[in-house]
Design goal:
- The complex is a heterodimer.
- By secondary structure, chain A is mostly beta strands.
- Chain A has a single domain, classed as Immunoglobulin-like (Sandwich).
- Chain A is built from no helices and eleven strands.
- In chain A, strands 2, 4, 5, 6, 9, 10 and 11 form a seven-stranded mixed β-sheet that branches.
- Chain A is globular and about 40 Å long.
- Chain A starts with a strand and ends with a strand.
- Helices cover 0% and strands 53% of the residues of chain B.
- In chain B, the strands form three sheets. In chain B, strands 2, 5, 6, 10, 11 and 12 form a six-stranded mixed β-sheet that branches. Chain B has a four-stranded antiparallel β-sheet with strand order 3-9-8-7, with no helix packed on it. A two-stranded antiparallel ribbon of chain B has the order 1-4.
- The chains are: A mainly beta, B mainly beta.
- Chains A and B meet through strand 5 and strand 9 of A and strand 6, strand 10 and strand 11 of B.
Chain lengths: 115, 113
Amino acid sequence: EAGVAQSPRYKIIEKRQSVAFWCNPISGHATLYWYQQILGQGPKLLIQFQNNGVVDDSQLPKDRFSAERLKGVDSTLKIQPAKLEDSAVYLCASSPDDRSVYEQYFGPGTRLTVT
Amino acid sequence: AQSVTQLDSQVPVFEEAPVELRCNYSSSVSVYLFWYVQYPNQGLQLLLKYLSGSTLVKGINGFEAEFNKSQTSFHLRKPSVHISDTAEYFCAVSFRQGGKLIFGQGTELSVKP
């Protein structure tokens, strides 16, 4: 079974530029999460999708961050314009829509550096 | 507010020695508890989880953890570590099935020969 795929793996941009990250979850997984992991900290949830609907985006900086999951499969996270403090690893995770399963499966992440 | 505290940011240990990574959480409701491991330049991998039942849970790679409700702790242990266990370890809680994970700040385990 293929894992969670993310691209690109690394991205360097200047502040005020825009950037987009892509995530393809494990096949059949209904729930998709985007986490932000700043160096030296644990991951923090940005947004959670159930199929193509948003479940939780309370910690998403909506003035600059946006995310979509149009067909309930892959997802895109965008930052526009980027700030220095957005430098972080962006992790995508997915989990089945199964009340007996609690595990989230993580992708390798995209490391963003904003200069 | 719910939170997770990992009491040690770095834990150096010699190979074959035992290790304990400490985790405390704050919550007024029932929680599900997890330990994840992150190797350099990789995503997080689940080591073990506590959902209910026996308070001692066993995971992959010889790790185990004990849930202590009275002390609101979920410490991770391994009786004998290997060089390959060198990684960042994260404790996390969730408050409902399928809900977001709230992570601690991580503990860097460094195993020395």
